[in-house]
Amino acid sequence: MKDLKKIVQEKYSYIAKQSKQQNESSCCGGTSCCGEVDYTIFSDNYSHLKGYNKDADLGLGCGLPTEFAGIKKGDSVLDLGSGAGNDCFVARAIVGETGKVTGIDFTEAMLEKAKVNASKLGYTNIEFIKGDIEEMPLLDNTYDVVISNCVLNLVPDKQKAFKEIYRVLKPGGHLCVSDVVISGELPEKIKQDAEMYAGCVSGAIQKDDYLKIIKENGFTGTTVHKEKEIEIPNNILLNYITLDELRELKRTKTGIFSITVTAYK
Asked: Which domains does the chain carry?
């Protein structure tokens, strides 16, 4: 099997070249590169938020992390897996001219799209940099707030990711992430399938394990602000499991959830 990070880069490079509408109808605009995984299945509506930029909205999130992030005017904010810049532009509307927003992503096509969007808006206090969340090219104790939206479940080593978040946060700073977690055991075929991984499902871990990792890396005051169940259509699941396995999944009430969490350094 290919390296999972490479798979994620390839999938999201394709997605970066599509509109939100194309992603909703077929995640790669009608090609077979992504099968039938709809990457917008988890997404929330951003259009009512100040700073919203429709060109940056590819429908790839699973929550609204800025809703609970407690971002203030003048803050320095880091967005992990910033994509086309959707959450960065919302954060920038909050921090204003005196703040700073940095987006980090390891997919070149997404970075290019984000930089074009920022250039059109003429912002001078937003930057987009290339980097791996497990080993970020950023200084210690730099950011007031770290946000992320449906990205950390794509990171193979979540311990490393949260250790890095802790490192780059200022003392007293905090994270606010929206992410996908599971309750119960997903069938092995779904967990192992790389396509479902890049679609945010099989990279998800148990909710309790996710919260435990945050605590193990030094964070305190962990709070789950929002939790919603994600319904994966049966026709998608049946690409990976049998009908009997699907019935068992429903019977045991195994669930896939989006949660939005804050925690403090």
From this structure: 4-264 (3.40.50.150)
